[in-house]
Amino acid sequence: MDRPEECNRAVLVSVANFDYGVPLGRRPGANCDAKKLHCILTKLGYKVELHMDPSSKEIYKLFSEESRRPVKECFLAVLSSHGEEGCVFGSDGKPVQLSRVFTYFDNECMEKKTKLFLIQACRGGALDDGVEVDSSVSRFPHYFSVPVDTAVMFATAPGYGAFMNFTGSVFLQTFCSLLEEEGHSNLELTRLMTRLSHRVAYTFESKGRKYGGKKEMPCFLTRLTRDVFPFAEMEKDR
If 120 and its partner were Cys, which of 64, 80, 132, 148 is the partner (CB 3.0–4.6 Å)? Predict the structure, then answer.
């Protein structure tokens, strides 16, 4: 039998409110995302930890420690905040470099374990009109810091914004909806991420006078070396 600490783990980092004086707006939908993710992942057998409004220093410290803790087969990290290309922001308004976070997991403890990162953050200020964009990783060399057996799913393509309203983000709410639907939790990870991309790209369109008609296209980066089924564990254990 597995030791009690050897379970699939999920760490949710959500920044909804920023420190006084930081010129970044509140993200009221972040709390909705966090609650729904916590509920669904717990039902799927994950041990879930939620960290609300940490500073950049606290985020670095958190993932440095998490990368050395035992995990059964899969470690899932969700980072939700304002962002730019290559970083998200802590509650103190300071950037958290994603490449640095990824490198923490290139260690013996995480060897041969599946690492999945979901990044809900803008990657620039452009808005997607529904045209093809260039998401080649060769433009972003810091992505080569991603360890083997790791996948990263970004809410949007490089240079573009990601949408959120008071009910949550398009990306994470769609991810949760897929896991709730019959059959999707049993999918191999790359197939699940493909369906997530398709649903966001083809069913979402922003509304309103300022942003009406804009789209969002998630971006998937993988260094997986095998098929993985990170959300089918609970059913297989039964």
Answer: 80
pTM beyond 0.85: the answer is yes
Amino acid at 211: Y
237: tokens are 């254990």
Name the DSSP letter for residue 226: S
Query: Residues 6 or more apart from 209 whose CB is under 8 A from it?
Result: none
Q: What are 4-14's pLDDT values in tens digits?
A: 557 999 999 99
Q: Which residues are catalytic?
A: 82, 122
Which domains, and CATH codes, for the chain? 9-128+143-223 (3.40.50.1460)
How far is it, in rounded angstroms, from Cα 51 to Cα 11? 8
Residue 212 φ/ψ, nearest 5 degrees: -55, 135
Sequence-separated (6 or more) residues with CB below 8 Å from residue 206? 163, 212, 213, 214, 215, 216
Spell out where 137-233 has E strands: 150-154, 164-165, 168-169, 219-222
Say which DSSP state 215 is in.
B
Report DSSP letters for 98-155, one per residue: HHHHHHHT-SGGGTT-EEEEEEES-SSSB-B-S------GGG-GGGGGSPTTEEEEES
Asked whether the beta carbons of 105 and 150 are under 8 A apart, the reply is yes
